[in-house]
Amino acid sequence: MPKTQISNEQRFKNAIGAIKAMGVPTKNIKRILDNLLLLFDENWDAIEADNYSVFVDALLTNDEEHNYIQNSWDPVDNSIIDEDLEQKVCSIVGEHNQHTNVAGCSTSHTLSRKRKQQSQDNLDEVVSQENLKGKEIVIATNSILQNEINPLSSRKSNGQKMLESNANQNSFCFKRSKSKPVTSPGHINIAKKRLVGNHSKQLLINLESQALQTTNFNAVKKDTRNSFHNDGTSGFLEDSSKNIEIASSVSGQVKLSFSLNGLGSEMCFSNLESVFRKLEEKFLRSCIFIQPNFSIRNILTEMCETVQDLSKSSSYEKLVNITPRLDCSKKNYRLHASVTDPPISSSGNPLIKVTIPHHEPALGGIRPLHDVNDVAKGEERVRISILNEVSSERYPPSFSYIPQNIVYQHGHVDFSLARIGDEDCCSDCFGDCLSASIPCPCARHTGGKYAYTPEGLLTQEFLNDLLSDLPISYCNVCPIEKFKNEVRPEPCKGHFVLKFIKECWVKCGCSKQCGNRVVQRGITCNLQIFYTSENKGWGVRTLDELPRGTFVCEYIGEILTNDELYERNQRPKNGINEKHTYPVMLDADWASECGLKDEEALCLDATFYGNIARFINHRCSNSNLINIPVEMETPDHHYYHVAFFTSRKVDAFEELTWDYGIDFTDHMHPVKAFRCLCGSDSCRDNNNKKSRSNKISRKMKK
Ligand SMILES: C[S@@+](CC[C@H](N)C(=O)[O-])C[C@H]1O[C@@H](n2cnc3c(N)ncnc32)[C@H](O)[C@@H]1O
Q1: Which InterPro entries does UniProt cross-reference here (predicted)?
Q2: How far is residue 546 from each of residues 550, 650, 678, measured CA to CA in Å?
Q3: Best mutation site among 531, 581, 616, 617 for ligand 1 pocket (most ligand atoms within 8 Å of CB)
């Protein structure tokens, strides 16, 4: 009999009969049904849709805050009851309508597992509701992930009751295409869980895509504190054979991976790499500047469509078996792919098979070299994105991002508090030294005046002094010359006498917010690593305009003795790290410090371990950055920080450069000079001068 001819009373009875079989007490069923009828304006079609899926959702939803469905059974052990119920629901539902409930069952089971875990971990409640009338799915959450998910406030329409979070400003909503019927594939169930106490979150998304026909995706969003391995890969898998995994860190960093199986249709599947590449091009790049309409749902939808697009257009004629192997002893996981002749389907099309073995994390297999959204992996206060609009190179070569200098092996840096005397700190200060009437002892190094303004910029006076010609001092025995010829070193070629800044530090009485602490607070500018169009490789640019005197970043690397650097440079270079980043000599005191032993002279090498500064290119003249030695924890100038400040106003998207101080004629220098492409009029690279004059004379001849 068509449903329209069944009376509402009969439908009520049918519902009770079906749900009672799951073991739910009749009075509870009635209460929930009453609520649902109220909620859906007596729309029985909506309640019966997907075999009472809203009822099942209501059973699983136990949210007092929103009063959506009152908790209607004894809360003895919800996890067990839930699991039981869900299994029954699944079996009943399965009997009723096998096809449409495959996804429904897996959703319920997933929810159940999650719920069990939730109850064990003292998790807060699932808050989800599918609004059937408006074909919208609304999630209310205390999310901090607003950048990733389109923040829309809960809306009420046509008598539909939406969930309203206590934290309304943080709620967001997933909209479903209005053209799709409620029961069609394309169904998305989303459950949001919040860990009590530490505000960790999990977002569970089950997506069955019409586009992918028989392919199922499960997506799991999970707090990285629970899911990421130490090496930064995600370790969470529900069912590795058919999962999309989205893992997000508390700082908002998102990692996406997916694996497919069951491509039983005669779809010609492109390789995973091209799917990832296309998706990254589409989304990850744009996520650097978060778009207003950005949402996880869009990514998932786009992912389905991309897989379908690529599969349709693929001329792939091979069977690809992709098997990620997780070797925990190695840091870089790789996707192993083998290509064999494809079996031909009944329609004559080659079939594609993608196999992801159970319990092997799919994410690990395709770990990228760097996170294009944040090369610093959350180590800095700002995210540092990577963008290449020039060539196909997706990432800079491998290196480990470190936010602080680290001693490589033998470099001796004495950080002991005992070495900091009263004259080298301001233990009597309080709050902000800059606001005190008399400059503190820390300003002694800068002539009794602070180098910083209250806004955290270098004072114009300090900067002007720096940019005027610096005096040069000469070592008795120069470590650089000893590098070149240990037995008979040539005389020192001279080093600039650098002007130091002394920042307040831990032995000082002032606060961390003291105006004389700028470099130690880390990077605050929005910077980007980008591929230069002048063949200089990767470079750094600012995304915002920077005033003159702005602290940009420190040059961070391994602290090496000059001996160690020399030894490192002698080693045969292979492949990836063939190009050394330019090491920075900590030579401020070479001339004045008596008896500095070779093994004591230090330098910073960012080739293998470093920060964003390792990407800043050289410019012979008119560079926009100046490197300034900054002393914090050590009172002598044997070790110090190298900080970059803007030497003039820098426009947004302008490349940041500094003068490495290279002598392009010195072919014996420990680090081989490159052919300079800085493009400045006063380029010191003679090769360039020659080629420029050749060009001019060729032009003249013409
Ligand atoms: C500190 S790294 C800078 C980042 C580097 N461009 C990269 O892709 O990793 C120094 C290296 O960059 C390149 N480089 C820096 N400045 C350059 C310039 N003005 N002209 C040509 N190459 C430059 C050289 O290969 C040099 O060894």
Answers
A1: Pre-SET_dom (IPR007728), SET_dom (IPR001214), SET_dom_sf (IPR046341), SUVR4/1/2 (IPR025776), WIYLD_dom_sf (IPR043017), WIYLD_domain (IPR018848)
A2: 6, 5, 21
A3: 617
pTM: 0.52
ipTM above 0.90, yes or no: yes
Contact 492, 591 (CB under 8 A): yes
Residues with CB under 6 A from ligand 1: 396, 536-539, 579, 581-582, 614-615, 617-618, 674, 676-678
For atom 7 of ligand 1, the residue with the nearest CA is 538
Q: Which residue has the tokens 């209250």?
A: 454
Helical ranges in 195-238 per DSSP H: 224-227
Residue 7 reports pLDDT greater than 60:
yes
- Ligand 1 atom nearest the C-alpha of 580 is 27
Which residue, judged by its Cα, is nearest atom 24 of ligand 1? 674
**Closest atom, ligand 1, to C-alpha of 675:** 21
Distance from C-alpha of 333 to C-alpha of 71, rounded to nearest angstrom = 46
pLDDT digits (tens, 9 = 90+) for 636-662: 888 999 999 999 999 999 999 999 988
Contact 203, 325 (CB under 8 A): no
- Nearest-atom number in ligand 1 for the CA of 619 is 19
CA 685 – ligand 1 centroid, Å = 14
Q: Could you tell me if 387 and 372 are in contact, meaning their C-beta atoms sit under 8 angstroms apart?
A: yes
Residue 374 alpha carbon to ligand 1 centre in Å: 21
Cα 253 to ligand 1 centre (Å): 28
Report the nearest-CA residue for atom 1 of ligand 1: 581
Answer for the pair 556, 414: CB distance below 8 angstroms, yes or no. no
Alpha carbons 599 and 616: distance in angstroms, whole number = 28
Distance 537 CA to ligand 1 centre (A): 6
Write down the mean pLDDT value for the chain. Answer: 65
If one residue of 393, 536, 614, 662 were mutated to test the ligand 1 pocket, choosing by the most ligand atoms within 8 A of its CB, it would be 536
Task: Give the confidence band of 627 by pLDDT, cuts at 50, 70, 90.
Answer: very high
Pocket test for ligand 1, best of 618, 642, 657 (most atoms within 8 A of CB): 618
Residue from 483, 485, 477 nearest 596 by CA: 477
Please give the order of strands across the beta sheet that includes 641-646. Answer: 501-502, 625-631, 641-646, 551-554
Closest of 688, 689, 622 to residue 654, by C-alpha: 622
What phi and psi values does residue 690 have, to the nearest 5 degrees? -60, -50
pLDDT band at 485 (very low <50, low <70, confident <90, very high): confident
User: Which residue owns the Cα nearest ligand 1 atom 4?
Assistant: 615
Q: Give the list of residues 6+ apart from residue 491 with CB closer than 8 angstroms, or none.
A: 474, 478, 481
Q: What string of DSSP letters covers 109-150?
A: HHHHHHHHHHHHTTB----EEEETTTTEEEE----S-TTTS-
Q: How far is the CA of 468 from the centre of ligand 1 (A)?
A: 26
Q: Ligand 1: distance of its center to the CA of 128 in Å? A: 52
Decide: helix, strand or coil at residue 201: strand
Q: 536 CA distance to ligand 1 centroid (A)?
A: 5
Q: How many CA atoms lie within 13 A of 457 on its CB side?
A: 14
pLDDT of residue 415: 83
In the chain, where are the structural domains located? 385-663
Instruction: Give yes or no for a contact between 565 and 414, defined as CB atoms under 8 angstroms apart.
Output: no
Nearest CA to ligand 1 atom 15: 617
**Angle (nearest 5°) at CA 639 between 667 and 488:** 35
- Under a CB-based contact definition with an 8 Å cutoff, are residues 103 and 90 in contact? no
Whole-number Å distance between alpha carbons of 191 and 201: 11
Domain 385-663 has CATH 3.20.20.150: no
Q: Residues 6 or more apart from 460 whose CB is under 8 A from it?
A: 548, 549
